[in-house]
């Protein structure tokens, strides 16, 4: 692909190439509209020379960041970009649109400019283009499970940058599960002191009898999380926290046995994978605990959406509990299994009272009030059903969007979630079921990477990329053809290399040159 025709991922809505180049120099001045100062700061951070400050502000600057609320057709994230030999004009109706355009400018530079190392002046040339770009979906998310295997905040910041480069706008953090609690809560320090540590980890899939004998631990500080939120916001990425309840809660119960469905029974932080039948109780102190935890979550994360997990909650312990049976009877529920939806409704109402929208993993949304946003993952048809029920829906179909499945059937494939291969083409071919005859709204799409088998950054990179590129192309642009996407990806891989991403195979049926899942949440 010629220097005049840079390969862009995701593909812009409208793109026209023009002759010539604009060269970014340290003295290139910026003309900054009122309100666009944060975009200018990001531009200087990402496109400025590594040697120091650049791009001074000037009322007659040749590089214009224009914020114009009258550009309503661009929506919250759309932008227009014109690169001419003597000027650059980036305009948007909202600041987030300018941030998206800056990521396009990064991709218009030669790949080596992304390395952060000093580069020749010629490498800082932008080919002349005219672009108008508007996303297909307002929610384009990536969920990372930091509960099964803790990941340091430095890695999370790196992934924020990678998401932003690909115009993905949500980082969902799966902060708690049976195998670990990573969210600090001042009122309950044992959640991280006890719940943040497990004695060992299962080797192999759920049901394996083999363990590694290696303790695993980790938790974030409040300062780390608030810093991450600010870092992500500056790049147009929202960090959405996920606190699992009422199932997937064994780490919390290990720290506070009084919270379990069998109050006072001591359990350890789970060392296995799969679905654990240890669940939260339904006595009132449990709800006091959940409200306290969620209020601290709200203080740390300004996200409009708060994820409550909500799936895979066995009712075995409730069925055996006199307290749970009495609670179900008192609430007029058909049986103890119905306590699941009742529990989520109570905690969802708590979030709604504080101006936030609750999100839950669900099949069709059955049992949840309409104010819940439903994240569907099992079957494409579930998305249609949830929409007809009136829910806002985020589609995360596991057979196209779960990146912990193997990418190839090669014997050299690293450990991955058991199940059929989800290769690069399957991710790019994924379509979201939509229907005009629905009461709900399709908010967007999400991909997920569960980390039972992922303990180091290299393995994480290899599973996430290049499939995350395919997901981003589909989420932002829509139905680009496979040959067109694949040709762009071949060029884009140089950018991944410059950023130190040790990605998986670019060709779905060939092994990766960098060789060294979860079907439930």
Automatic annotation (TrEMBL):
Region Disordered, residue ranges: 502-521
UniProt KW keywords: Glycosidase, Hydrolase
Keyword ATP-binding: no
Residue ranges of domain Glycoside hydrolase family 20 catalytic in the record: 137-477
EC number, UniProt record: 3.2.1.52
Reactions accelerated catalytically: Hydrolysis of terminal non-reducing N-acetyl-D-hexosamine residues in N-acetyl-beta-D-hexosaminides
Record's keyword annotation contains Nuclease: no
Domain Beta-hexosaminidase bacterial type N-terminal: 7-133
Domain of life: Bacteria
Name of the protein: beta-N-acetylhexosaminidase
Family under the similarity heading: Belongs to the glycosyl hydrolase 20 family.
InterPro entries noted in UniProt: Beta_hexosaminidase_sua/sub, GH, Glyco_hydro_20_cat, Hex-like_dom2, HEX_bac_N
Principal EC category: hydrolase
Pfam families: Glyco_hydro_20, Glyco_hydro_20b
Gene3D superfamilies per the UniProt record, alphabetical: Chitobiase/beta-hexosaminidase domain 2-like (3.30.379.10), Glycosidases (3.20.20.80)
């Amino acid at each position: 692909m010629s220097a005049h025709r840079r390969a862009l991922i995701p593909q812009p809505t409208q793109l026209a190439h023009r002759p010539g180049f604009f060269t970014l120099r340290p003295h290139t001045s910026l003309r900054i509209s009122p309100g666009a100062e944060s975009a200018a700061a990001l531009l200087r951070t990402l496109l400025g020379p590594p040697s120091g400050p650049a791009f001074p502000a000037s009322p007659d600057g040749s590089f214009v960041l224009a914020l114009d609320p009258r550009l309503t057709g661009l929506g919250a994230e759309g932008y227009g970009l014109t690169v001419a030999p003597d000027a650059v004009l980036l305009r948007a109706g909202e600041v987030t649109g300018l941030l998206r355009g800056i990521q396009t400018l990064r991709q218009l530079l030669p790949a080596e400019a992304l390395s952060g190392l000093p580069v020749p002046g010629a490498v800082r040339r932008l080919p002349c283009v005219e672009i108008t770009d508007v996303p297909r979906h307002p929610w384009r998310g990536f969920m990372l499970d930091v509960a099964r295997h803790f990941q340091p905040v430095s890695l999370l910041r790196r992934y924020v940058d990678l998401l932003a480069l690909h115009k993905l706008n949500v980082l969902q953090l799966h902060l708690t599960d049976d195998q670990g609690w990573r969210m600090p809560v001042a009122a309950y320090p044992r959640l991280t002191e006890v719940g943040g540590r497990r004695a060992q980890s299962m080797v192999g899939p759920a049901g394996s009898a083999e363990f590694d004998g290696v303790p695993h631990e980790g938790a974030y500080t409040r300062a780390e999380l608030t810093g991450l939120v600010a870092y992500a916001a500056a790049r147009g990425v929202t960090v959405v926290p996920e606190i699992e309840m009422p199932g997937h809660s064994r780490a919390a119960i290990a720290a506070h046995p009084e919270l379990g469905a069998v109050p006072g029974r001591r359990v350890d932080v789970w060392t296995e994978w799969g679905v654990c039948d240890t669940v939260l109780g339904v006595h009132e102190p449990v709800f006091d605990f959940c409200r306290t935890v969620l209020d601290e979550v709200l203080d740390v994360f300004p996200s409009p959406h708060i994820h409550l997990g909500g799936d895979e909650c066995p009712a075995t312990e409730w069925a055996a509990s006199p307290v749970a049976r009495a609670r179900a009877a008192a609430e007029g529920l058909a049986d103890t299994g119905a306590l699941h939806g009742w529990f989520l409704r109570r905690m969802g109402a708590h979030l709604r009272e504080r101006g936030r929208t609750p999100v839950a993993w669900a099949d069709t949304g059955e049992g949840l009030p309409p104010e819940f946003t439903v994240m569907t993952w099992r079957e494409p048809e579930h998305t249609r059903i949830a929409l007809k029920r009136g829910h806002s829906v985020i589609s995360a179909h596991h057979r196209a969007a779960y990146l912990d499945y193997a990418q190839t059937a090669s014997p050299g494939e690293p450990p991955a979630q058991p199940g059929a291969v989800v290769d690069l083409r399957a991710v790019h071919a994924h379509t979201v079921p939509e229907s005009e005859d629905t009461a709900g709204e399709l908010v967007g799409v999400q991909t997920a990477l569960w980390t039972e088998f992922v303990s180091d950054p290299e393995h994480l990179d290899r599973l996430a990329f290049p499939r995350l590129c395919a997901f981003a192309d589909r989420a932002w642009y829509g139905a680009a053809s496979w040959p067109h996407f694949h040709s762009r990806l071949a060029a884009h891989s140089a950018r991944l290399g410059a950023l130190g991403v040790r990605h998986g195979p670019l060709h779905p049926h060939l092994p990766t040159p960098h060789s060294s899942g979860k079907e439930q949440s």
